[in-house]
Amino acid sequence: MVGTFVRLKLRLLRNGLSLGQGTVLFLMGAIGASLLALIGFTTLAATRGNSKGPDLAIVVFGLATLGWAIFPVLGFGTDETLDPQRLETLPLTRWQLVSGVLAASLVGVAPLATLFAFSGALIGLGHNPVSALLIAVAIVEALLLCVVASRTIVSLMVPLLRSRRGRDFTILALTLIGLTPPVLELFATRHAPSGNFGDTVVEVADKVRLTPFAWGGTAVADAARGRYGSTLVLLVAIAGAVMLLGWIWAHSLERALTSADPAAPATTRGARSGLIPGWLPFLPHNRVGAVAAKDLRYFARDPRRRAPLIGAMIVPAVALFASLSRSGARPAATTLLGLIAVLPTAGLTLNQFGLDGAPYWSSVASGNDPRADLTGKNLANALVMVPLATLSVFICASFTHGWTYVPLALGLSPAIFGVLLGVGDVVSVRVPYALPERRSPLAFNPGQGCASMLAGLGALAVQCILLLPIAAVTTVLVVATPLPVATLVAVAAANAYGVLIWRTGRDLAVRSVWWRLPELLDAVSPRQAG
Fold this sequence. Notes:
The chain is mainly α. It has two domains: 2-258, no CATH class; 282-529, no CATH class. 72% of the residues lie in helices and 0% in strands. Helix 3 packs across helix 9 and helix 13 packs across helix 17. The protein starts with a helix and ends in a 7-residue tail after the last helix.
């Protein structure tokens, strides 16, 4: 059975490489994993003769184990082999499932990269045959701990990850992970004591050496220092942890295969309130308002629409913290960095009909009016972008104390929206593509090749070029005139320019798709998603 699972995993990998974009992403992932493995191997191998080498091994093994525990959870729904429910129809015993899935989990780029990175400890820390043997056993056990821990956590969280709240959890987790490096860099710059990298490694290793995810590295470090008794104790502890996690995994796997997906909660409030919610009374009671209200509901329910908000929350924070950590100052004009939050959401405007998918048939069947459809979608996107940009600007202002730049930043945001929406409307009807129904909000469409990726990059380039006049005029006015005058003139000129770009883009899109709505519906149909 183990051989069958291994052959099945190899077949899945080979079939995945037959898809154009899947091959590109696989190669990108393989290159990234190879670079990380090479860095880990070189780092550990170069510690030979260094007194701080064992401490560095603790840190490297701990980070690898922690990464194995986190990232498979975030990848749930993107890598379908992580979902044990796909095996529920097979007449397999619990032991066959666990052993087969474990063997298949050890096949792939990530396990090989991890094993290669860990193997550097044999060269750098293996000083005699006894220590080399103990280090080799610790490497194997550490790899097993990584794989079993990741599978156990995924199996335990399957009920949550299958639900809409689980997809929201993925978005929140990615946001927090993305915000961690700049925040740590900022605080490290301000508060960390002066010291070299080696002292920092020793301090970190001393704090984490007895935590479970660092046991493998601690065993390697003790073996390198000749503490064979403590090494054997740690190896027994790791083996016990692997067996305990395997037992939990087996039972959670069986429960996951016999439990149904959580049912969506039944609500009647939305049915009584009508299509246009009461908290948006300004929406017109026509086709434009109906499309906008429908898209706003999708924003609240479809994780694929909320995924670009990850970048919208991370990018301004990274830019702001990086600026502060480099200069140590807080220039007031840095408040304008809050507008960067709008750029990642531009991805929502580039495939507006693809996000609808098959339900777009109701709009096609109700009459040929793409102008109203695009206007309604643009209105819904703007209602999402406006609060996001406003919040980002105020957060930046609270850090920089540049409150005098807040009116300018908020006044420029509609102009930026106009440019993004104008380009997005044209791309949405010229290069529409279907999106697969995946559990992960970060899922891509493997059946479209590189067309969607190239279209997105081209649209991003056009948007940046069209935004240059706004940036240039604003910069000149802020430098040459008093801020109140610069704010009034720049906001008026930028918004007139933004309205022009938006109307031009929308009209081009309408003329392009006016008699091609059935073809557009076919292009975004789920069957095109592969």
